[in-house]
Records
---
Amino acid sequence: MSPTPSRTLALIVLSAASLMTILDGSIVTVAMPAIQHDLGFTPAALSWTVNAYLLPFGGLLLLAGRLGDLIGRRTMFLAGNALFTLASLLAGLSATPAMLIAARFLQGVGSAMASAVVLGILVTLFTEPGERARAIGVFSFTGAVGASLGQVLGGVLTDALSWHWIFFINLPIGLVSVALAVRVLPADRGTGLAAGADALGAALVTGGLMLGIYTVVKVEEYGWAAAHTLGLGALSLALLAGFFARQATARTPLMPLRVLRSRNVSGANLAQMLGLSAMFAFQILVALYMQKVLGYSALETGLAMLPAAVAIGGISLFLSARLNARFGARAVLVAGLVLLMAAMGWLTRVPVQASYVTDLLPVMLLIAGGGLVLPALATLGMSAARPDDAGLVSGLFNTTQQIGMALGVAVLSTMAASRTGDLLVRGVTDAAALTGGYRLAFGIAAALLLSALVVAVTVLRSPAPAADRPAPAEALNK
């Protein structure tokens, strides 16, 4: 059965909103030197143009997802989109570092509110397995495009206009998304705050996640063994442990622990955390390798990575749904992870003097495995979500995405820098030392993907056909 025009338009709205938030995660990185020059950021403070966005985005996803179930996912999506759009205007108008950091924080809050419920809305709109798989493929396509387009667009806008326009570009997208969402997204009343208004649980999980993400993004500055890292890391784990203890005893828990009893919910989130740790670090580290070792400009780097975005986007848009339907989401996930492992293995041999065609283009094509992995994980992760838990499971899925990306960048960047430092001490040239560090990081990324593959094979199960699928309450216990 073909989706109705209103549902197709709803999918476009949801995908456009996702594209906007993903774009914003990468578009700033290219413009950071211009922002520092214009606003007078110190080198240490400049990182907060990124961190001020990541902290609320990653820390509030789980809370926003549950609140979406309670007050209505459409309401949460509209409020988040509106806040993000307003914050983008403030960011573009910023004249001081403090104003920009505050606007970026508000952008992160709005992103969390909107992103947390997108998958929850999508799976309630598209209930038939085939059309749901196609919808998830389209949704994953926009994610792939946004991740790579951000770097290209950031370079073009900053060079042609000014860094202010990397934020102003969100305004037309946000305004149109809100206007259309009011018309095409189904109204849902939610179960009411009384069904899960756990204020203490909300404080524990939000504090634990935000503190944990802050600890991870500061690892490069302090190191893994520093008192700062160990102390805040331990406090973050204690807060999260307190949250889970609270959920086991609360009368109206923020996150009913039954959702984690599903093999597919827990397994897909773990596999996603491991896999995205490698994939996001790939995006960052390959870009650094091109610029610092090969001498590419920011725009050249973005264009060089476009084949990866096209390959991932094409696979997720045109093939993933058919393959999931024919072979099952788990089999497709396994195939995608194998391709990604091959890409990382290829990168462990990159030379100091590389040819793009022979040394990097094959990687950009192999990374197409991401177009199989992301839709399959979304299908598996949302397969057992009850209607009244869809926002929560969607928020959980997005939370593990953010944690995986933050951990991946922190771990792999730190290991690469350490290896580079060791090689420099031995008298190796700068380019060779940097290359050696990146090779090590790509090897670790391959190991992370292997771990995700083990989880996929041993834990995950492809969803049963609709006729054979158990009732939602039974599915969450499997």
---
Amino acid sequence: MKLLVICVGHRMPDWVDAGVQEFVRRMPRDAATQIIEVKAEPRTQGKPVEVLMEAERVRIEAAIPPRARIVALDERGDDLTTVALAGRLRRWRADGDDVVLLIGGPDGLSPALKSRAHELIRLSSLTLPHALARLLLVEALYRAVSLEANHPYHRE
């Protein structure tokens, strides 16, 4: 299984890039993780939010490989514990498809993209900056993979 994190936006602060790359580097081969950045649509005066999200949807969909399980991050998604995320990883691995996790732009993901997703999850009830959401997601994936491998990374 391969994990692809498709994020809207680029040019993250150095501390975000360093943290994300550290957790990506630590991931085991059977859960190799790749970050794919897609360009955010410029937020110019007068452009409706729907138009912005649609442009980003097209870019995101172009980056999704065929036959991948799509998991969208959304504030209304399932609220998972680390143990529950580890269980999802186990199920995704058993299904055999690559898993794509989507992080939207400033306005979130388009409704069409969310409806295409196999599942919706959320990282927090708090509003998170996109840079922090990216780092938090890869850390959570690493923690869940470590738990599945019986590494003493997680404490209940």
---
Amino acid sequence: MKFAAVVAMIASAAVVSATPVNVPRAGFTLQNGIDAKNLNQKFASLNANSPCTSGENACVGTDFAQCANGRFVTFPCNTGLICAALPLVLSPGTSIACTTAADRDARIARTGA
């Protein structure tokens, strides 16, 4: 096979694989967005002295927090990031991570919530 033909095949394969795929929304997608919004609202009312259950994770201010002995222990996110609840994409539920406010809002908006 000639070099030009091989290059053409590789180029067309790259174009095909770069085409976006329409993935239907799973039945849990909207609920994940609603749950993430509700958690973020709950987190807005928390502070380091808020009561909590051992093993519970949350956001306190812009920090990630874990409950130990009935108190939140906070861990700051990197500069420019905030702690937020995010909707999971492939399964029901949410996660808590350090991200930007814009990313948080975009992820929730994609769920339709």
---
Amino acid sequence: MLQNTGKLAGCTLFITGASRGIGKAIALKAARDGANVIIAAKTSEPHPKLPGTIYTAAQEVEAAGGKALPCVVDIRDEKQIGEAVQKAVDTIDILVNNASAISLTGTLETSMKEVDLMLGINLRGTYLTSKLVIPHLLRSRSPHILNLSPPSST
């Protein structure tokens, strides 16, 4: 096995929404550097229209040279976040708040259900995940939080 000497070698990343898209791309880059990746996302079963689950992402992370821990996490659920954080190692070096929701409709066309979803994930979920991970980040020699926002277009 090759020794990983990338900048993230030995680091542990907690990435929300890492089962596909940008979150998975970040996970794979970290894996190529030799990082440990907690894949915190809702998708444990295949979605009919979207590729990837936490388990397929974990397989790809391991194939890329990292270590993966897939965790079923809806970031609106404090218990699920807490359980995933407890499964992780004592130190988390980087939190990537990637999970997000967006409705690309005008104000008059956007239902309150969609607004509640966006606020629940983008605001509350990001805040809650940060709050629960920060005690672990404080044990890191180089703690970081990266907050991403939903795309402005599809």
